[in-house]
Structure formats: C-alpha cells, structure tokens
Amino acid sequence: MDRQMLDEDLMPSRPKGATKRHIKNAHARAAELGALTPIEPAARRADGSPRIGRDQVYVTRTGEVFHPAWCSAVADKWDAQPDGLLIVMARDVGARRECRLCENPIGN
Fold this sequence. Notes:
Elements: H1 3-10, H2 18-33, E1 43-44, E2 50-51, E3 56-60, E4 65-66, H3 72-80, E5 85-89, E6 97-98
Parallel strand pairs: 4-6
Antiparallel strand pairs: 1-2, 3-5
C-alpha cells in the first residue's frame, strides 16, 4: 500500500486557511473571556518548566480554562509549545473555568 495514500486517507481534508481561521477564532473567544497579563512564575523546575506560587495559575493564550495545578493538559502544552503556557494571577482569569484535570495533578 502506498504510504502517501494511507496518510492522505487518514488526514481530514481542510480548505486552505482553515487553520489560520481556527486560530483567529480561538484568540477572539479567549479575548471575550478577559485579558491576560502574564507574570513570572514563583519558581522553575530543573527542566525550566514554570512552577506556580500562591494565587498563580497556568493558562494558554487561547484557552477557555485555567489550571491551578500541573495537570496532564499543562504538561502536554509545555512539551508541545512552552511559550504558549502563561502564568497569571488567579484573580485575572476572567470568565475562564477551572480545569477538571487539575483535580488529579501530576508531579510537582
């Protein structure tokens, strides 16, 4: 079986510009939830990942949730796009809701 054909069969077709539109829409939805003012984390781990302190939470620029703990979603974001993970004061999350995965945090 042709490898390229298999990859194309598994990948959904997307009109050109769909990814840019999706990103633009995600930023617009996030902006409606409230402006984010990134701050420095309380500390950093040996690998450079941020460690939040008192009254700090993790968010992403386009996220609709905030993360009060290092959960699998935060870890995945750090692995895939570390500059997309922001630290903000908990009082500044706006209308974002709390992440359900943070009920079962991983590591410190």
